[in-house]
Design goal:
The complex is a heterodimer of chains A (250) and B (268). By secondary structure, chain A is α+β, with helices and mostly antiparallel strands. Chain A has a single domain, classed as Aminohydrolase, N-terminal nucleophile (Ntn) domain (Glutamine Phosphoribosylpyrophosphate, subunit 1, domain 1, 4-Layer Sandwich). Chain A contains 7 helices and 10 strands. In chain A, α3 crosses α4 and α6 crosses α7. Chain B is built from 8 helices and 9 strands. Classes of the chains: A alpha+beta (250), B alpha/beta (268).
Chain lengths: 250, 268
C-alpha cells in the first residue's frame, strides 16, 4: 500500500498517512542526538558532535546556532535543510525587531519555523524539511522556554526533550531523572544534560557540545575544557552514588 | 493509476499489452549468433570463483572437503561482519583459507581475472588452534550460525512501532537445532530474505542444525549500537568457547567504527 501513496507529498494514503512526512521523520533519526533541558533560570542544549574528517574544518559543522541574542536552536537531520531553515528564521527575527521594535518571543519564532515546515508538506513539487529542531530561549518576561518542531510542522513546548538518533533512550532517561531537584540550580541542569547525552554518546566528553542561555545573558558555548570538567564531575558523582548503593546493599 | 513525484496522475503500464506490441517483441526476440556469444561471455564472467589464499589458484570444492567442520559461522552485512571480526575473530588466531570472488555488471572494475583482495565477496577463515571450526561441505554434526541485519521498517508487528526498542534481535532456526536460542523467535508474518534465507533453507533441507540471528536496526550503516545488539549471541553454547576477551573486543570495535566511518555530511 505504501508504495503507491508515498511518492507524492500531496497525496494521502487511504488510511490517512502522509508517507513523505513520515519518511522525513526517519531522516531526522539519522542525525546525531540533541538534548534540551529547561531549568528554572537556565536553558541547556547538548549535542553529540559528529566526528569530522581529518582535513575538515571543525567550525563548519555546527549543530547549535543562535537565531537571535536570546534564542538559539539545535537541529537533527539533513544539514542543508537546516541551513535554509536557520537563515529564514534569522531574517525573520531581525525583520520582526525592525517592524515591531521588540525582539521575537521564543514561541513566535518557533511558530514561524513550524509554519514554514508545514507549507512544505502541502506544496506540489516540494518535499518536507528533513529536520527536527529544539528551540530554546528566554522571553522578555524572563520565563525560560523550550520548544520542539518536527518535519510535519507541529510544535510543542517541553520541559526536556531529545531528538535524533537514540532519542527514545535519552527521553526515557529524562523522564526518570527530570525532577525538581535535578533542575534546582544551573549547574544541576547542565549536569543532567550531560548525563542524558552520555547515555548514548559512546566516546565521552570529546564528542559533546554544550550551550546554555541564562536570563538576560547571551548564548554561551562551552569550550572543550569546560565540557571535559563537567563530564569528569558527572563521572565522579556517578561513582559516589554507586558506592553508596553498594554499601547499602552490602 | 499512479501519482508521480509532482502530484500528477499517470497511467500505470498495462501488463496485458496490446497486439502491436507483441509483434514487435517477437522480432526482437530472435537472437543472432553474436547475441548468443555475448551472452556466453557474460555468463563466464559472472561465474563465482573460489580462490585459495596462498596460491590464488582456483580452490576445488573437493579440496575444501579436506577441512572437516563442526561449526560454521557466516556473517552477512557490515554490522554482522564487524561483530564477528571484533568479538569472535579477535580471540584466537584465525587463518584465512580462501575467498570467493564474483563479478557482475554492477561492479566498477571491468577486469574480471585480476580482482584485488578487497573485492572478495566472501572470505573464509579457520581457527588455527581448532581447525574443525570451518568448512563448506555439509556434515550431519555441523552447527551453522548466521548473523545478519535488516532495517526495522521491514519488521511487521501488530504492536505500535513506537514501542519497539531498536535495535533488537530475533532468531529463526532449523528443525534440527536443539539448543534454546538467545533471543525470541521471529514471529509471523515476517520473512527472511536473500543469502541468509538461502543458507537456512539449505540447512533445513539437509537436516543441518542451524540458527539465524537477525538484528532489526534503524541504522543500516556500520553502527556501534547495532553491532552491540548481537552480544546475546555470545552466550550461546556454540560461540561461548570462541569468545575470550570482551572489553578488548569492544575497544577493537570502536577502532573499527572510527576507521570505517563514511564521512557523509548529509545528516548532522
Amino acid at each position: 500500500m505504501a508504495s503507491q501513496y508515498d511518492r507524492a507529498i500531496t497525496v494521502f494514503s487511504p488510511d490517512g498517512h502522509l508517507f513523505q512526512v513520515e519518511y522525513a521523520q526517519e531522516a531526522v533519526k539519522k542525525g546525531s542526538t540533541v538534548v534540551g533541558i529547561r531549568g528554572t533560570d537556565i536553558v541547556v542544549l547538548g549535542v553529540e558532535k559528529k566526528s569530522v574528517a581529518k582535513l575538515q574544518d571543525e567550525r563548519t559543522v555546527r549543530k547549535i546556532c543562535a537565531l537571535d541574542d536570546h534564542v538559539c536552536m539545535a537541529f537533527a537531520g539533513l544539514t542543508a535543510d537546516a541551513r535554509v531553515v536557520i537563515s529564514r528564521a534569522r531574517v525573520e527575527c531581525q525583520s520582526h525587531k525592525l517592524t515591531v521594535e521588540d525582539p521575537v518571543t521564543v514561541e513566535y519564532i518557533t511558530r514561524f519555523i513550524a509554519t514554514l515546515k508545514q507549507k512544505y508538506t502541502q506544496s506540489n513539487g516540494r518535499r518536507p524539511f528533513g529536520i527536527s529542531a529544539l528551540i530554546v530561549g528566554f522571553d522578555d518576561d524572563g520565563i525560560p522556554r523550550l520548544y520542539q518542531t518536527d518535519p510535519s510542522g507541529t510544535y510543542h513546548a517541553w520541559k526536556a526533550n531529545a531528538i535524533g538518533r537514540s532519542a527514545k533512550t535519552v527521553r526515557e532517561f529524562l523522564e526518570k531523572n527530570y525532577t525538581e531537584d535535578a533542575i534546582a540550580n544551573d549547574s544541576e541542569a547542565i549536569k543532567l544534560a550531560i548525563r542524558a547525552l552520555l547515555e548514548v554518546v559512546q566516546s565521552g566528553g570529546k564528542n559533546i557540545e554544550l550551550a546554555i542561555i541564562r536570563r538576560k545573558q547571551p548564548l554561551k558555548m562551552f569550550s572543550a575544557k569546560e565540557i571535559e570538567l563537567q563530564v569528569n564531575e558527572t563521572g565522579k558523582e556517578k561513582e559516589e552514588a554507586e558506592k553508596k548503593k553498594s554499601k547499602k546493599t552490602a | 493509476m499512479a501519482a508521480t513525484f509532482f502530484g500528477e496522475v499517470v497511467r500505470a503500464p498495462c501488463r496485458a499489452g496490446t497486439e502491436d506490441e507483441e509483434e514487435e517483441e517477437e522480432e526482437g526476440r530472435r537472437e543472432t549468433p553474436e547475441d548468443e556469444e555475448v551472452r556466453h561471455q557474460l555468463a563466464r564472467k559472472r561465474e563465482v570463483r573460489l580462490l585459495g589464499r596462498q596460491t590464488k589458484t582456483t580452490l576445488e570444492v573437493s579440496l575444501l572437503e579436506k577441512y572437516p567442520c563442526s561449526k560454521f559461522i557466516i556473517a552477512i552485512g557490515n554490522n554482522a561482519v564487524a561483530f564477528l571480526s571484533s568479538f569472535i575473530m579477535n580471540s584466537g588466531v584465525w587463518e584465512e583459507v580462501g575467498c570467493a570472488k564474483l563479478w557482475n555488471e554492477w561492479c566498477r572494475t571491468v577486469d574480471t581475472t585480476h580482482l584485488s583482495p578487497t573485492e572478495a565477496f566472501c572470505v573464509f577463515y579457520h581457527l588455527k588452534s581448532n581447525p574443525s571450526v570451518f568448512g563448506s561441505c555439509p556434515r550431519k554434526n555441523m552447527q551453522v550460525t548466521i548473523l545478519t541485519c535488516r532495517h526495522v521498517t521491514d519488521y511487521k508487528t501488530s504492536e505500535s512501532t513506537s514501542s519497539l526498542h531498536t535495535p533488537f534481535l530475533k532468531a529463526l532456526k532449523t528443525q534440527n537445532f536443539r539448543e534454546p536460542p538467545c533471543c525470541s523467535l521471529l514471529e509471523q508474518p515476517n520473512i527472511v530474505h536473500d543469502l541468509p534465507a538461502a543458507v537456512l533453507s539449505y540447512c533445513q533441507v539437509w537436516k543441518i542444525s542451524a540458527i539465524l540471528y537477525l538484528c532489526y536496526t534503524d541504522v543500516m550503516k556500520l553502527d556501534l549500537i547495532t553491532v552491540e545488539a548481537f552480544k546475546p549471541v555470545l552466550s550461546s553454547r556454540s560461540l561461548r568457547s570462541l569468545v575470550k576477551n570482551i572489553p578488548q573486543s569492544t575497544e577493537i570495535l570502536k577502532k573499527l567504527m572510527t576507521t570505517n566511518e563514511i564521512q557523509s555530511n548529509i545528516y548532522t
